[in-house]
Amino acid sequence: MSNFLQLVRSTSATIEDLAAHLDRLDHAARMQELAETSRDDQRALWVKAAAAPELTLGHFVPDDVAPRTPVVHHGRNTLPLPGSQKFFRKPMARPVDGSARAFGYNDAPTERLVGPGYFVLVPTTGSAEWARRGAWVVDYFQVPDGPVPLGWPKVVPNTKGLQRFVYHGTRDFMRRVSRHVSIGAAFKGEKPLDHYFTLCREDR
To answer: Number of structural domains, the chain?
Structure first.
């Protein structure tokens, strides 16, 4: 068992302990440790992350990155899928209008079948219940309303095609784990689904 999993499963280890461990690793090592997490592990990580500092937009798209420039977050979910299909990418980019949000989509093995799953990353300010879940939410109720980076798929609403069964009506609330890593919990409307995923930002 990796040191990371030992910390996740320890009742005495804090989110600060987990962050310090992950921050000492390079990107490949962080990805390897996150790849070993089970659903129970990610649930425990989500609970521990409630005590972490709040996420900022700069965690997802650093402040020095120009609008329409994608920043890639590598993900692993806990859905009942074959091993290789648990991995995906969430590229994100700031919009050209300068608003405090990010556009993104799901670059996943299922993309050709179910669609790109576009979303808008927005702050949870204004809702005390949402803020308790995390400072930022991946909101599939919204899709980009401005230009996206060149090379991204065509923007389509999540009510279209098979993706309505996967993304429509869903929000993923995000909590900070470490300098590069965050964890999300999926909600259908206001109902928690008890499904989680980790994201690890790729260094540019």
So the answer is: 1
Answer yes or no: is 130 within a domain. Answer: yes
Which pTM does this prediction carry?
0.94
Alpha helices in 49-140 (DSSP H): 57-60, 111-114, 128-133
Q: What is the token pair recorded at 106?
A: 């799901």
**Rounded Cα distance, 196 and 77, in Å:** 6
188-202 residue pLDDT tens: 999 999 999 999 999
Q: Which residues neighbour 99 within 8 Å (Cβ) at sequence distance 6 or greater?
A: none
Give residue for tokens 């993104």.
Answer: 104
* Containing structural domain, residue 78: 54-201
Task: Classify residue 156: in a domain, yes or no.
Answer: yes
19: three-class secondary structure by DSSP = helix
Question: What gap in Å lies between CA 119 and CA 103, rounded to an integer?
Answer: 6
